[in-house]
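Open question from group meeting: does this chain pack into something compact, or does most of it stay loose? Before anyone orders reagents, we agreed to write out a predicted structure and look at it together. Recording both the input and the output here so the notebook holds the full record.
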Amino acid sequence: MSNWHNCSSEVAEFVKQLVLKTKKILGSHYIGFYLHGSLAVGGFNSKQSDLDFLVITKKGVTVQTKKELAQLYLSASSKPYPIEMSLLREKYLRIWEHPSSYDFHFSEFWRERYERDLKTNGSEYINAQVHKDPDLAAHITITTERGICIDGRPIERTFPKVPREHYISSILGDFEECVEGMASNPIYSILNTIRVYWYLKDGVISSKKEAGIWGLDSLPIELKFTVEKAIHCYLDGERPYEFNREELLPFTHYITKEVRAYLI
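Structure tokens returned:
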């Protein structure tokens, strides 16, 4: 487990090459490159963690530029670290709204669609449309609180202060997905729901690792073994433990009840 300040030379070089190639594609439109995920807040696991970042531009970009970015990230993502990024223009940060607009997004979810567009010179997914993403309120909040400016304009001169209610709205969307997917993805879901609970309870923006450790001290004793297993699997990058329905149901019931109590 690492963060940007103590990560391996391989991770650092991977990021630096992405920055250089992204800047080359964007040219004079480029403002900065900002980490906001586990490599920023801590808990980056080279076996399984995504590389999460935002890229900010002065103006919107052309469809051709989006295709060049798609080609870059398709060639780099999952070799070895999966990439998840969003490209936003400065205007979207200066005139804040929730959900926020963005010009381009990449994650492994879009791989086959982008590959198809590039192969056929199509524009079904890579086009001039501007989209909105409620997750950006969370990404930007984490960036302003604990993010890393790898290159470009400093964070405090680039990003707005996202209203608390917008951040809560954003993380609650993820919370509901975690509750629904608890059985299929228990490690991520357990640790991420604890992150939401801790923020609502104490206002702490945490990594999954930090949330899990806090959960061991703060959740009822009967849930602690489940949390301990989730932490161990997350840190190890493997899944030596199984999570059964009999333990996930009480955890889900408790965390849902506690989170909803803070929203009344």
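Observations to bring back to the group:
The chain has two domains: 9-160, 165-261.
The chain has a mean pLDDT of 96.
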